[in-house]
Design brief:
The chain has 308 residues and is mostly helical. 77% of the residues lie in helices and 0% in strands. The protein is built from 11 helices and no strands. The protein has helices at residues 2-30, 40-49, 55-81, 98-118, 120-137, 147-169, 176-192, 201-207, 212-242, 246-272, 279-306. Helix 2 (40-49) crosses helix 6, helix 5 (120-137) runs antiparallel to helix 6 (147-169) and helix 9 runs antiparallel to helix 10 (246-272). It is globular and about 60 Å long. The relative contact order is 0.11.
Length: 308
């Protein structure tokens, strides 16, 4: 009997350990670290416009923002949204658990502490970002239920604020030109952000949220995004022109071609049949835009810093 009892206890402990491990694994998945790839263009955009900087410093700024700060924001949003259908970066999200909240706090702490090792101002900006991202998601405030406010907050913080945060992390001065580029990054984010909501109207409505995409409708979302993308690209070209950065203009024009093609085709198909408004096409749009812009800004960074 004693042996059987011991075996049962061991089995129970193994089962509990396996369940705990599975919970932490699910929590890590819900942090959606790969989804940070879609937000990389702002980082590379800032680097392409920065002066001299140390590669090691840029590496740590990247880790703090894209490995800790963004995933913590993603995880916190998932914790309160409890998505059952496809969400950015995850086709089939696992169930939310308490370990997710703990992991978010760990990542937030690492982001703020790591940023402090670079500079107090950088750390303060990281802290502000975490607080704003929580106001976006938490049920007591839930900025997500206010379409215009939430869109403004997200696009400014993922755009201009992050652009400035990268420069602060690199100890770069922020003058008038850099402020223009920061504003342009907000317009570019404004072009992509509503598209991440376009396939979630039903689930957002069930939660009581009202996103900008819901307010605009499917056609209105595409039109709004087209305008924001156009303003952002036009502003970028104008800035490059007045700085005599003609090579940059050519490369950016080439980078815009796959983005414009996929966006226009997706918009046309979606207006004909709303079944094309789905998670897969949204993620494809994000991937094409992110990778095209990131690759171009990386090339520009190397041209400006290592091209002689």
């Amino acid at each position: 009997m004693a042996k059987n009892s011991s075996k049962n206890n061991s089995s129970a402990q193994l089962s509990e350990t396996a369940e705990k491990t599975s919970s932490w694994r699910s929590a890590f998945v819900l942090m959606r670290i790969p989804f940070s790839v879609f937000l990389m263009p702002v980082f590379w955009f800032a680097l392409s416009n920065a002066g001299d900087f140390e590669a090691w410093d840029a590496f740590w700024v990247f880790i703090i923002i894209h490995v800790f700060l963004y995933p913590a924001s993603n995880g916190y949003n998932s914790y309160f949204d409890k998505d059952e259908e496809s969400v950015g970066g995850l086709k089939s999200p696992p169930p939310v658990n308490d370990e997710l909240f703990k992991l978010v706090m760990i990542f937030d702490g690492l982001a703020v502490f790591g940023a402090w090792l670079i500079s107090p101002l950088f750390s303060m900006m990281a802290l502000v970002y975490t607080m704003v991202s929580k106001a976006y998601s938490i049920d007591k405030i839930r900025l997500k239920q206010y379409p215009v406010i939430s869109t403004t907050v997200v696009t400014v913080f993922q755009g201009a604020f992050t652009y400035g945060m990268v420069l602060i992390g690199l100890d770069e001065p922020i003058g008038e030109t850099q402020m223009m580029y920061a504003a342009i990054s907000t317009f570019l984010i404004s072009g992509s952000y509503p598209l991440t909501q376009i396939y979630q109207h039903k689930e957002d409505e069930e939660r009581g949220d009202k996103t900008l995409s819901m307010m605009l409708g499917i056609k209105g979302t595409f039109i709004f995004s087209a305008i924001m993308f156009s303003v952002g690209f036009a502003g970028l070209m104008i800035c490059y022109f007045f700085e005599d950065r003609f090579t940059d203009m050519i490369l950016m024009g080439l980078a815009s071609l796959p983005i414009a093609y996929y966006f226009t085709r997706w918009m046309y198909l979606s207006w004909q049949d709303e079944d094309h408004v789905n998670h897969r096409n949204t993620m494809n749009m994000n991937a094409i835009a992110s990778l095209s812009l990131s690759a171009t800004f990386i090339v520009l960074m190397f041209i400006h810093h290592y091209g002689g």
